[in-house]
Amino acid sequence: MKRNKRVRTFLALIFIVFSCTLVLIPLYFTVLNSFKPYPEIAANIAAFPQKATLNNIKEAWTRLNYPLVLSNTLIVTVFSAIGTVVLSGMTGYWLARHQNWFTKLCYVLILCGMSVPFQCIMITFAKMIGLMNLGNRYLGVIMSNWTFSLPMSVFLVTGAVKSLPVEIEESAVIDGCSPVNLYWRIVFPLTKGTMFTIVSLEVLKYWNNYLMTQFILTKPQRRTIQIAMMSLFNEALFSWDVAVAAVTLSILPLFIFFVIAQKQVLSSATMGAVKG
Predict the structure, then answer these.
(1) CA–CA dist 187, 176 (Å, integer)
(2) Which residues contact 120 (CB under 8 A, 6 or more apart)?
(3) For 21-72, what is each residue's pLDDT tens digit?
(4) Which of 105, 126, 131, 132 could bridge across to 215 with cysteines, CB 3.0–4.6 Å?
């Protein structure tokens, strides 16, 4: 018995180390080479910088127009995430607690939406955004993000709400709680862990969204960080030292977000376990 447990532990450690290696080595090389001049990168990408420099960061900051593209990306990402939480949360709650032919049909349609590849309707959706006069507007990108995120988000919320005991909500209704307050004061806190998981996954998608965004935001002053990076990579003056510095600047806000989000998810999960 103990031997089997040791074998399972050893295999688990191997998989953990292997997974961490796949993720961390590219990240390590990217950040490390952001502070090295190009000749050192060309000589040995794995070596520590002999003369660490911030020139690459400064050059990438300027050529990306980083404050502008960062603010554009934050606007799109934040409002997309907020809308996804509100819409998927209340829709998932409604589908979970109102079981009839109409809600079942809606749920099936949502599952069908999950099975349609994004690339199949990307061009058509971009044309629709243009007809709605939402081209080069943040709202156009935000609405496209909602469209492609809601099926999976609603699916996850519906499952989370179904796992909650109905008696809690019935007690709140007896005490005079309105449907809106019932969701935000009772159901939402109990599904906070699921919500933070959805936000974490969707923020990563919104932040790195390039294909859909490039069709909608074509003006330079509306560029997000991914569009600006692709433009930088395609420039004639392209160089690897500036490129890796640009990648480092793009992942830094995401790193900060995920550190904070991880604490929130763990806190919510612990709170739910204590209440249970």
Answers:
(1) 15
(2) none
(3) 888 888 888 888 888 888 888 888 888 888 888 888 998 999 889 999 999 9
(4) 126
Contacts of 24 (CB under 8 A, 6+ apart): none
Please name the residue that has the structure tokens 């936000």: 199
Under 8 Å between Cβ of 71 and 222: no
Contacts of 52 (CB under 8 A, 6+ apart): 35, 36
Number of Cβ within a 10 Å radius of residue 248:
20
What are the tokens at 129?
């955004």
Which two three-digit tokens encode residue 79?
A: 């409002």
Sole residue written with tokens 């993000």: 145
For residues 229 and 242, the answer to whether their CB atoms sit within 8 Å is: no
Report DSSP letters for 65-117, one per residue.
THHHHHHHHHHHHHHHHHHHHHHHHHHHHHHHH--SHHHHHHHHHHHHHHHS-
pTM: 0.84
Number of Cβ within 10 Å of residue 53's Cβ equals 15
Both tokens assigned to 34: 């952001």
- DSSP three-state, residue 20: helix
d(CA 109, CA 198): 20
Task: Give the closest residue to 187 by CA, choosing from 68, 69, 89.
Answer: 89
CATH class of 65-234: mainly alpha
Residue 84's pLDDT is 94
Q: Quick one: tokens of 235?
A: 């420039």
Q: C-alpha distances in angstroms, 32 versus 46, 68, 122, 171, 254? A: 8, 25, 36, 57, 18
How deeply is 153 buried, as exposed, middle or buried, from its count of CB atoms within 10 A (0-12, 13-18, 19+)? buried
